[in-house]
Design brief:
The protein is an alpha/beta fold and 432 residues long. It is built from 16 helices and 18 strands. The strands form five sheets. An eight-stranded parallel β-barrel has the order 4-5-6-11-12-13-15-16, surrounded by five helices. It has a three-stranded antiparallel β-sheet with strand order 1-2-3. A three-stranded antiparallel β-sheet has the order 8-9-10. Strand 4 (34-38), helix 1 and strand 5 form a beta-alpha-beta unit. The protein is globular and about 60 Å long. The N and C termini lie far apart (52 Å).
Length: 432
């Protein structure tokens, strides 16, 4: 079967699990470690693909659940795949929809996210079988799959591992993920074990479905029926059918060292092209959990930390062997007026910025910092002008993307720890 990706390690971080490498996909090369910008519904909110390319974004990630509901994965396939549909020519990933099992289920109506503090008693979940908070769940988990009601119109849907893979093949991303169950670190040990067993079963089923579809795809591409004539949707479907896709398995296990290592071993022994590290992490021990996993996973395949994007966590992840990260954070906080700087985050709506004619982050190379002042950004947000979200998003995405690029260069130059210590010392100076 034709290989979908090629991963090469260029240099290792001495004494640690970190490494710098290259990941070659059908739509281009990703220099790792790299930050993956999230375009949930086939768009990075408030930004165009051209703007993403201009600021150096290498790879995007779209959301399987949301695109399945709107506009529909079959429509996107008819359009020639998501690359063509959204006009993004670079590498692309899609998640499995597994996180929505979490966000529409146990996390629905709670302040549970990818990173939580387990010391908050309001987030503790005594038993899955009860819903003592009275909040209705939109997703129900069974051993075969997940039934859920659309957050758009309430319609009932059922997603299995096979269905998730089918949807992702229709979307046509270079790298896709196995269907999994994301759990909260506040879950009971009993439920974590139950969910982990389900995730491993779903991983096997996802892999089997993926291989079946890849074999059929290549057989079709090599057949006499494969012709490239004209520029209609039929041709686009043929092109989409000819491109191999890589499948990453996802490691779960919550806060338990035993379960995390068990999951890494089980998933690592399956024939995946790479691996995702999933789950909702406890802030107190996220780096430890990542290290447990990456000490077990095969070294020669790429590793992706799902849903993590704060600078402190990125440094920790890179140090502990993560090659790729994705997070909605940079654009989400930008739309609320929060912006990264080398001295920490600022909220541009604060009164002190109304007459501040300096750039958002002195020395930053993004278009926003080169051409606009804090006062102007403050005006845009106060006036509720759409341009404010765009300019803030351009800066935040550039800041995080460039930060991870600097980490990569620091590994190559043997200066990673000096760079990390200097950055984090300055980043802690200012609070919003």
């Amino acid at each position: 079967m034709k290989k979908a990706i090629d991963f090469k390690i260029e240099k290792r971080l001495e004494g640690f699990l970190g490494r710098a490498g290259t990941l070659t996909t059908p739509h281009g090369v990703i220099e790792t470690p790299s930050f993956v910008v999230v375009g949930t519904k086939g768009t990075v909110k408030a930004m165009t693909p051209e703007q993403l390319k201009e600021i150096g974004v290498q790879v995007t990630l779209a959301n399987t659940y949301h695109l399945y509901l709107q506009p529909g994965n079959e429509l996107i396939r008819e359009a020639g795949g998501l690359h063509k549909f959204m006009n993004w020519q670079g590498p692309m990933m899609t998640d499995s929809g597994g996180f929505q099992v979490f966000s529409l289920g146990v996390a629905y109506g709670k302040e549970l996210s990818k990173v939580v503090s387990v010391t908050d008693p309001s987030l503790l979940i005594p038993e899955r079988s009860t819903a003592e908070d009275g909040v209705p769940r939109l997703a129900t988990i069974g051993n075969d799959g997940v039934s859920f009601r659309s957050h758009l119109d309430g319609s009932l849907h059922y997603i299995t591992p096979e269905k998730s893979i089918e949807i992702q093949h229709n979307l046509g991303a270079d790298i896709i993920f196995a269907f999994d169950e994301c759990t909260s670190p506040t879950e009971t040990a009993r439920y974590q074990e139950e969910a982990l067993s389900r995730t491993h079963s779903w991983a096997k089923r996802s892999l089997e479905e993926h291989k079946k579809r890849e074999e059929a795809k290549q057989e079709y591409a090599n057949s006499s029926r494969f012709t490239l004539k004209g520029s209609d949707a039929t041709q686009n479907s043929h092109i989409l059918a000819s491109l191999p896709q890589a499948l990453f398995g996802i490691v779960q296990g919550g806060r338990s060292e035993e379960l995390r290592k068990k999951s890494a071993k089980v998933i690592g022994e399956m024939d995946f092209d790479g691996f995702g590290i999933g789950g909702s992490f406890a802030k107190e021990d996220m780096s430890t959990a990542v290290k447990w996993v990456n000490e077990v996973l095969p070294e020669d395949k790429p590793r992706h930390l799902l849903g993590i994007g704060e600078p402190e966590d990125l440094f920790s992840g890179v140090e502990n062997g993560v090659d790729l990260f994705d997070c909605v954070g940079p654009t989400r906080i930008a739309r609320n007026g929060t912006m990264f700087t080398k001295n920490g985050k600022i909220n541009i709506l604060n009164a002190k910025f109304v007459k501040d004619f300096g750039s958002v982050d002195e020395g930053c190379g993004c278009n926003t910092c080169q051409n606009y002042t804090r006062a102007y950004l403050s005006h845009l947000f106060r006036a509720k002008e759409m341009l404010g979200a765009t300019l803030a998003s351009i800066h935040n995405v550039y800041f995080i993307t460039n930060l991870v690029k600097q980490m990569r260069n620091a590994i190559l130059n043997d200066t990673f720890h000096e760079f990390k210590n200097e950055f984090l010392k300055n980043y802690a100076k200012q609070s919003i």
